[in-house]
Structure formats: structure tokens, C-alpha cells
């Protein structure tokens, strides 16, 4: 069984898995993580039990722009980081060895074996994450001071679907994918998380605080919910 509901299916035994986990992974389709000695003949029955959830969740994810087809993306010819207004042209030098990225103005040179796409995608994703921290930290600091909403630390992560979060200690985590969003959506996301330093929930008090600083926040929430389509399929 290699497909289910017209999506690619991958079964991954994991030595630390204690139960079966079924998830949808952008760019890959359905992933089933099972304990090491699990009888994989049970997987079809488990998927049938999850059929309704898989259908509904995949529909919502695809509406938001996430690719679940599992089609391998091509090597990109540019890296358009809309958040900071930088659109890098990408060139490739096909040679053995480690994958390296050299930045020269708005041009990136990727050196390494071109057939190793996953490693190239990973290198470009790391480059994007580094730019996210470089770009977002000053913006977050400025907004924090201006709105009198202090935070303790910033973390940049490469998550599958979540745009950001705020811990009880005031640590704000953002998804490096936000670099593919327009700057006004990035600003809204940072406001959203800074307001969580006061209210660690989505209570009426929380939304009242958001509205005080951004009266049309609902428009941005709607745009953010569909912004996944702006992220290239190779990013991971």
C-alpha cells in the first residue's frame, strides 16, 4: 500500500515510538510512524479508522496552500523573501562534496551535487531561517518597546504548519516560513505573539488587546490562515 485517499503513504518504524501516529506532512502526504516491531499489516485498518479525519484535514490544508501530493519539487531558480524585500537569484555549481551556499548581494551560488535535492533544500531552508532571525529580531524589539509588551527571548524554528507561539516565560517562537509572507502579515504575527505575553490564551481579553493595537486584526487573521500557499514546496 503506497497511497491512501490519492495521497502518498509512508510507513516509518521508529525505535522510540510507543504508539501509532498518523499525520499529514506538507510535500510528502500521509506519514504513519509505528513502533519498531509493529505489524505493518494493521496500517490499512488504522487508516480506514482515520479516513474521515484525513479527508477533512487534507482538504483544509490544501485550501491553505499546502502541497500533499508528494511530487518532488524542482530546484528553485530564485528565493523570494517577501518579508524583507529580497529576491535572490539562485545559481548552481554541480560538483561532489558538501552543499554550500555563497551569498553575493542578491545572488546565491549553491555548490554541491545537484542530484542531492533534499540536502540543497535543507541548506536553502537553513539560509532562510538565518535571514528570519536577522530580519525579525530588530522588528520584534521595536514593536515590543513601542507597545510596552516585553518578551524574554526569540526562537526561529522550521515547523510544518504553525506560524508562531509564546511560552509562559515569554519566549516567542516563530516559523522561518514567515519570510515568504508580506511584511504586514509578519507584523501581525509578531503582534499576535506579543499579546500572548499578557494573555496565554485566545480569550475575549486577549482579542481585545490585539484589537487595541490593530483594529482590523480579523482581516490579517484570515490572510494568515491561507498564507501557507505562499511557501515554496521545497521548504522544510
From TrEMBL:
Q: Where is the YgjP-like metallopeptidase domain?
A: 19-226
Q: Which residues cross the membrane?
A: none
Q: Which domain of life is it from?
A: Bacteria
What Gene3D superfamilies does the record point to?
Answer: Metalloproteases ('zincins'), catalytic domain (3.30.2010.10)
InterPro entries this protein is in? UTP_pyrophosphatase-like (IPR053136), YgjP-like_metallopeptidase (IPR002725)
Give the protein name, as stated in the record.
YgjP-like metallopeptidase domain-containing protein
Amino acid at each position: 500500500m503506497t497511497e491512501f485517499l490519492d495521497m502518498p503513504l509512508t510507513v516509518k518504524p521508529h525505535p522510540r515510538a510507543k504508539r501509532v501516529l498518523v499525520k499529514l506532512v506538507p510535500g510528502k502526504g500521509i506519514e504513519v510512524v509505528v513502533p519498531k516491531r509493529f505489524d505493518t499489516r494493521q496500517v490499512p485498518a488504522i487508516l480506514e479508522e482515520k479516513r474521515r479525519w484525513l479527508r477533512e484535514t487534507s482538504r483544509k490544508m490544501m485550501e491553505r496552500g499546502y502541497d500533499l501530493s508528494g511530487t518532488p519539487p524542482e530546484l528553485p531558480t530564485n528565493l523570494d523573501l517577501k518579508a524583507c524585500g529580497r529576491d535572490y537569484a539562485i545559481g548552481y555549481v554541480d560538483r561532489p562534496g558538501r552543499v554550500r551556499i555563497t551569498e553575493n548581494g542578491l545572488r546565491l551560488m549553491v555548490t554541491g551535487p545537484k542530484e542531492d535535492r533534499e540536502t540543497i533544500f535543507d541548506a536553502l531552508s537553513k539560509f532562510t531561517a538565518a535571514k528570519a532571525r536577522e530580519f525579525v529580531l530588530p522588528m520584534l524589539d521595536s514593536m515590543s518597546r513601542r507597545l510596552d509588551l516585553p518578551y524574554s527571548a526569540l526562537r526561529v524554528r522550521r515547523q510544518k504548519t504553525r506560524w508562531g507561539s509564546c511560552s509562559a516565560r515569554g519566549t516567542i517562537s516563530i516559523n522561518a516560513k514567515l519570510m515568504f509572507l508580506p511584511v504586514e502579515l509578519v507584523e501581525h504575527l509578531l503582534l499576535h505573539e506579543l499579546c500572548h505575553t499578557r494573555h496565554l490564551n485566545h480569550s475575549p481579553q486577549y482579542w481585545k488587546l490585539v484589537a487595541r493595537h490593530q483594529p482590523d486584526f480579523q482581516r490579517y487573521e484570515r490572510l494568515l490562515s491561507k498564507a501557507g500557499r505562499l511557501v515554496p514546496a521545497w521548504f522544510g
